[in-house]
Structure formats: C-alpha cells, structure tokens
From TrEMBL:
PANTHER family named among the record's database cross-references: EXPORTED PROTEIN, INNER MEMBRANE PROTEIN-RELATED
Keywords: Membrane, Transmembrane, Transmembrane helix
Domain Type VI secretion system component TssM1 N-terminal: 175-227
SUPFAM superfamilies, per database record: P-loop containing nucleoside triphosphate hydrolases
Protein's name according to its UniProt entry: Type VI secretion system membrane subunit TssM
InterPro entries (UniProt xref): P-loop_NTPase, T6SS_TssM-like, TssM1_N
TM segment ranges: 35-54
C-alpha cells in the first residue's frame, strides 16, 4: 500500500505537478523543481527502506543469538518461550484495557499453591475473567504454559502452575521458570510487581499428611512467598 502511494505521488509530481498551484504560485512548473521534488521523494523512500532493513537485520540478529543460546543451554528454549508469551500477553493487555496506564489500571495478584490444590478451579468459579491471549503452541503439544494471566474487571491474577511451587532443588527448569517469571514482573512493574499473593492449599492432603511431609510442604510455600 505504501509503495502504491509512493508511485502515485511520483506520477502526480510529473503529471499534475506543473499545473498545481499553492499561494498563487506553480511551484512544480519549472523542470528543475520537479526533479528536485523527485529527488527529495526518492530520499524519503530510501530512508524508509533503510529503517525497515535495519529493523529486519536486528530481528535476525536477535533470533540467531537466541538460537546460539538455546544450543548452549537447552533450558533456554522454555525460558524464551515464556518470555515471548508474557511480552505478547502484555501487548494484548494494553489493547484490551486501552489505557496509557494499563500497567497500573488494575491490581496484579498471583495465586500459588501445590499441584492439585485448586488454584485453577478457584479462579474459574470465583473470579469472572478473560484469558486475553493464548499462543498457538499452547493449543497443541509444542508449548506448555506454566503461568496463565486472568484479566477481570477488578484485577489481573496470575495462575501459577503447581510445578513451579515445588522445592527449589526439585527441578532446574521449574526453578528457572519461576525466577524468570518473578524477574519479568519486577522489570515490567518495578514500583510494585504484585499487589498481593493468593495462597491455596489442599486441606485433605495437608490434614492426612505425616509431620515430615507437612513441614516440607509448608517450608516450600514459605520459600516461594519469600521469593
């Protein structure tokens, strides 16, 4: 579309330009002026094309750097996928709220708890909300989401997968995904990453567990709250 507009204006300079009048002057009637206008229009097009090429080269360089990192550190594949998901979700949130202060328009909360403690059920039944962005990979088997932001009328709540609430030494990938999620929140909302934490527990499991398991579970949750 932009190319067609550029060609149209270039044709207009030579076709209608000689008869075009502004302030009772026919600025493009002299041949030299038309060549000057053509040169200026060509320079503008060249500058635009240069900017586009530079942006494309930067994107390619970023992709190559990411591929090198993934070759050295296989876990970075999941970390980069989570980064892309969160960044694209944030762009969707900006459009969804349509507010310059979209980062602070609603309070942000995080719901954490062991796997099977009812986090997702709690949000589904007790918090009317929208999942405003779901990547294509999340619908198949290519990408697993370890956190899902829910956007409601009063708040944004991040539903954290129970595997990320496991002990820090349980799985390196889950620990790094957890640290990455916290780092992303601190980067985007440096003044106050979260307004609060919602903690869920599986009470039957907690009551029937032996003392060692109960202390282990509470210590794990305490560590996550300290993070």
């Amino acid at each position: 579309m932009l190319i067609l507009a550029w060609i149209f204006l270039l044709v207009w300079i030579w076709w209608k330009g000689p008869t075009w009048t502004l302030y009772e002057e026919q600025w493009l009637k002299p041949l030299a002026n038309r060549w000057l206008a053509t040169a200026a229009w060509g320079i503008i097009a060249l500058m635009w094309l240069t900017v586009r090429v530079m942006k494309r080269l930067q994107q390619l360089e970023k992709m190559q750097k990411q591929q090198r990192e993934e070759a050295v550190d296989p876990l970075s594949v999941e970390l980069n996928a989570q980064q892309r998901y969160l960044d694209r979700w944030l762009l969707r949130l900006q459009r969804y709220l349509d507010n310059r202060r979209f980062l602070w328009q609603l309070p942000w909360y995080m719901v954490i708890g062991p796997a099977g403690s009812g986090k997702t059920t709690l949000l589904r039944e007790g918090f009317p909300s929208d999942i405003i962005y779901a990547p294509e990979g999340a619908r198949g088997a290519e990408q697993r989401l370890y956190l899902t932001p829910h956007v409601g009328k009063q708040a944004v709540i991040f539903d954290i997968d129970g595997t990320l609430c496991a002990p820090a030494d349980a799985d390196i990938l889950h620990r790094r995904l957890w640290e990455h999620a916290l780092g992303w929140l601190k980067e985007k909302r440096a003044r106050q990453p979260l307004n609060g934490i919602i903690l869920t527990l599986d009470l039957p499991d907690l009551l029937t567990a032996d003392k060692r398991r109960r202390e282990h579970l509470l210590q794990t949750l305490r560590s996550r709250l300290q993070d």
